Amino acid sequence: MTADQLIDRMVARLLRDHGKAKHHWRRAIGPIRLYSRDTHPHCNWSATPTGSATDVVLIEALLDDLRLAHPTLSA
Length: 75
Known about the structure:
The chain has one domain. By secondary structure, it is mostly helical. Strands 1-2 form a two-stranded antiparallel ribbon. The chain has helices at 3-18, 22-29, 53-69, and strands at 32-34, 45-47.
């Protein structure tokens, strides 16, 4: 899975579960940063969501779930 595919999956799930608009969630999720698998073998990506406290909590919970299912992403 790539970072763009991960963001698409997150946006779809947030829309389904919490409404609002695609651009709202894409902006709140922000970019996915990829790291080298040599230095981060267990999880090579991270995100720093922004927005309201509620949005950040929802995104962080989803990120935790997705880290378990997709710990490494390809470039």
